[in-house]
Hints:
The protein contains eight helices and twelve strands. By secondary structure, it is an alpha/beta fold. Helix 4 packs parallel to helix 8 (226-233).
Amino acid sequence: MAEAPAMPVVFFGHGSPTIALEQNDVTAAWRRVALSMPRPKAILCISAHWVTRGTAVTATSHPGTIHDFGPIAPGLFDIQYPAPGSPALAHRVRDLLAPVPVALDEGWGLDHGAWSVLMKAWPDADVPVVQLSMDGTRDAAWHYAIGQALRPLRDEGVLILGSGNTVHNLGTMSWQGRYDAPHDWAARFSDHIRDAVLADEPDRVVNYTDLGADAARAQPTPDHYWPLLYVLGARRPGDVATAPVDHIEYKSIGMTSFVLR
């Protein structure tokens, strides 16, 4: 019997939590991505919104829906995404990342970086989901290496999914102009990262601070950028990257998404 093909790896640019209340071209693209692949046995999600000291993985069978934002829109706090967890996957992740210590966390659930994209791509909430935290004390190369260590999960039916933004500067957003032309520095940085991913040149992505002022503006803090590094670390030679979403909203929030298979 032929072996099942390896699962792809995916990065979704998640934008504002309010996208959970919308049906638009971005959410439709996320759904098409999900429908284009085999049903995952489980999803390992790396979200921009779980940064810890050290590394942790959710190990509960029933992760809760975390509403980690203020009162920005009516209805957001009513959303639940009741996907099951997978303690077995949590233990597998811990083993793969050894000797890096990985805490089995039963207190965290699914934050909005996870559920706001998952509810659009897998709306039935019937695929087990585990979240992996990002160690905020580490550098970009370390996060990329963790993605490399997770690569075997692809042969085990697990989808590795990063959720963040290629450009993320809340201080320079234009709330009144969602589809206005982006800041020039945001466009330059986004184009650089997109081109590097499509060309399979990970060093350009890992060493993004080499872009100087553009990088400092596009990613004033690295939390929304790091999930992309996990996804690229899990890339295999020969994987072809596509960008089913590729634009910037509110002048400085990159919605670009990638699929590698």
